[in-house]
From TrEMBL:
SUPFAM superfamilies the UniProt entry points to: Glyceraldehyde-3-phosphate dehydrogenase-like, C-terminal domain, NAD(P)-binding Rossmann-fold domains
A single Gene Ontology CC term: cytosol
Gene: zwf
Active site: H253 (proton acceptor)
Function per UniProt: Catalyzes the oxidation of glucose 6-phosphate to 6-phosphogluconolactone.
UniProt-listed Pfam families: G6PD_C, G6PD_N
Residue stretches in coiled coil: none
EC number(s) on file: 1.1.1.49
Catalytic reaction list: D-glucose 6-phosphate + NADP(+) = 6-phospho-D-glucono-1,5-lactone + NADPH + H(+)
GO BP: any one term: pentose-phosphate shunt, oxidative branch
Annotated residues for binding of substrate: H191, K195, E229, D248, K354, K359
Protein name: Glucose-6-phosphate 1-dehydrogenase
Family: Belongs to the glucose-6-phosphate dehydrogenase family.
Record-annotated Glucose-6-phosphate dehydrogenase C-terminal domain positions: 203-500
Amino acid sequence: MTYNTNVESISPDGAVYYLFGATGDLARRKLFPALFSLYKEGKLSENFAVVGLARRPRTNEQFRSDLYDSINEFCRYKADDAELWSRFTEHFVYMSLDINNVDGFRELNALSTELDQKFDIPGNRLFYLALAPSLFGPVSFNLRDGGLLESKGWHRLVIEKPFGYDLPSAQKLNEQLNQVFKEEEIFRIDHYLGKEMVQNIQVIRFANAFFEPLWNNNHIANVQITLSETVGVEERGGYYDKSGALRDMGQNHMLQMLTMIAMEPPSRLHGEDIRDEKVKVLRSLRGYTSSDDVREHVIRGQYTEGQVGSKELPGYRQEDSVDPESVTETYFAAKVFVDNFRWAGVPFYIRTGKRMPVKTTEVVVEFKSMPNNVLFAQRHDLAPNLLVIRVNPMEGIYIKINAKKPGSDNAVQPVSMEFCQSCQIGINTPEAYERLIHDAARGDSTYFTRWDEVSHAWEFVDRIAQAWREDKGDLAFYPAGSWGPEEAGKLLEKDGFHWWPVNGQEEDNVIWITNSGK
């Protein structure tokens, strides 16, 4: 599918949307609000239907009541237009389904035929599996055996992460799906790729003439990618203790953002061309060759008891459903190299963790410093220029430069010029799930992960996990509410760099010039 100059206005073809796991947390917090926002903005045509599917019994009225509660609690729009709400909810029905019983799928197929006729839907099917990965294969087989893939329209499968636990499990899962669906029919969601500022990375890079000539190892000293969370594992302790930060965040979100920063310009704004360039980055990642190599370049940590303000925070091993002697990492930082002509020698520092001081997702591109023996650098300790892309929760970009301090005799101070997208749009910034559901319905796979992306990412991450299994003694600890273990700072210090302050923690000596009037 090629891009249209007015792509945002394109409504998808009419389809039946099947939400497996419709009584779960993801549907309530993200999927229902996304569908309502799309409908309110005219991005869903009237010829659609949504079938909520789960094991527990619910009537259509109960399902629509749950839908109403979900919208009013989590959606950026409220259900305050009675006429619009009535039109919207008539498209929603519920069916109790045992996903291991193919007869239930045959009943679902019969219901689908009725919905096609009622809403004039041309047999298009979008199956959204908000389920455990172990169920992806069995559900796919029953969709096929139950006749749901025999309609005359298109058929698409949307699945959530995690896609496997390691490369072998991901390969097995992919083989199961490929027995039923073609690769171009499988849409693997990484919701970070739906975020406004992640997608804006391409525009910043490829729509501005003064960035691309500098986007290489001649001018960039390092790149830092931070994804920090203030929360602990909360009720996910049982799941998280078997996963950890490396698999939960590193294999998908972190590496996906790295590919967006490091990719070459695609030949066309076409989904497959963009994904081709991302795969080239993953193929170029320098793999860690030994356990010693991993210990030198990767830090893993786990939070202990800490305090934020007057609030006492428990350590990870004190969380519910967590092994009291667990060595699962809640934090990891790594120095990564992309071995190609553009990035040879440039370190990419990535870090993610729970129980950090600030919730943020941010990319910092640090440019090389001016020569220290010429002009102003002879008399001043000039700060390096930075390009900072703020992804979450505040969205925007800023550039830090050096400028003359007003009223002084050539005194130099850092100045940051900021574009604050959140200040303009505020809470009405489209949610990632809105964009991704809309794209999947239109058949645009640009911001979904292709199988070769998934496999290369697992191949890279599995080497780290293997080294950690061989040596459990290198786990570092950090107090809850801190920025991670000291070893993470030393990872940069030995290269002459440091972690830059992130959103909400800016340096006091920086003068801000912003579009928001700050």
